[in-house]
Write a structure and sequence with these properties.
single chain; 452 residues; mainly alpha; transport; MFS transporter; MFS_dom; MFS_trans_sf; transmembrane helix
Amino acid sequence: MEKRKLSFWEIWNMSFGFLGIQFGFALQGGYMSRIFQTLGAEPHDIPGLWIAAPLTGLIVQPIIGFLSDRTWSTRFGRRKPYFLLGAVLSSFALFFVPYSSTLWIAAGFLWILDASINISMEPFRALVADKLPDEQRSYGFIMQTLIIGIGTWVASNLPWLVKQLGFAETNETGVIPVYVKVAFGIGALVFLLSILYTILTTKEYPPKDLEAFETKKNETNFITDFFASLRSMSSNMLKLGVIQFFSWFAFFTMWSMATPALTEHVFKAPAPLKKEFNLQIPAEKLEFETLNNTFQTASDSVGSAMGLYGLSSMAFALILTFYSSRLKVNRKYIHMFSLIAGGIGFLMMSVLPNPSYLNASFILIGLSWGSILSMPYAMLSSSVDEDKMGFMMGLFNMFIVIPQIIAALGGVNVLSKLFGDTAIAPMLLAGTALIIGGLCNFLITDKKIISG
């Protein structure tokens, strides 16, 4: 069946659910480390507490991709049932995570949250390839990036906005501020409603041949397909995987370590450690509460600054949306220069440790983020079997989660030491990884996937 070109609003509707998905990711990325530190975690413990996130992605995404490729209902479609399941579970986890009373509970909710977001997110990538002809795929993935940018910016600033409405700070030991809890609750609602909007406004195409579809579904299984796909993975996919490896190592380092790194290096307000204070002595308790309040305020500022990378990626995607709707883009060079720009943004954090320059750093990082969310998927979708699009997108995400697992299991702590023992060292590591990822785009030589 020949796919017709879709209008702006049709592509907008099918991508709108990413607003909620990004609310989940932005609140998780911007505030989970803060929650961990509020509950008593030390900076070197934080990457390990994040290990659940990439592990769930490694397991969940290929499975969901495989299942969604083999799902078809005239009433519910192919990808939409997974959107809804992930949205319900994610909304539950988002609402309850800031109420965690201990580190292990918070880490458990992070595991549930990330697994649930992955259930919704993976089929959204496949939906673009399902619905759009090849010449519109760059446009479709860039549209997703535009909506992701909006979600990142709004969600990253949501706790600050809620705080301005009159919700008070808290100086109590180990207690998450109320305004953070309210922000996560709003995020849960936005997640569910935005996914429902896409489900209700988007129709999916049926398989080309239903009889052949049913036969193939009954003849294959996940394990066989998994190993067969690994053996037959194209050189293009492997090259894109190398670029993804360095890109996502960098962003995992930012999500897990930006709060401890920047509150200390830029705002001079590190999180106080409870073990260093005798809270039974009034003077020491007051000192701890004062330092903790300063840390919470600095964390708000870091969260708001991080929101700028969402705003920047949104502006970048908006420009590319208008351009790619009419003309082809060079995916390779856009991705290369965007990653290098983000790497420079990270390096600036050390050279210019000032809150004003921090905004400029995250604007540059936003260019990388906007490209990471669109260009690799656009290139990949032009080089894989459409009948296995969901599964291959899930398999491709191995190149996203494996670097994050390596980072969480000690990669960040060990490799950061190459840049010294200062708090900002992880951000220097992130910048270096992004620049290497950018240069790896020289590996891409296939003209079919470069232009689109």
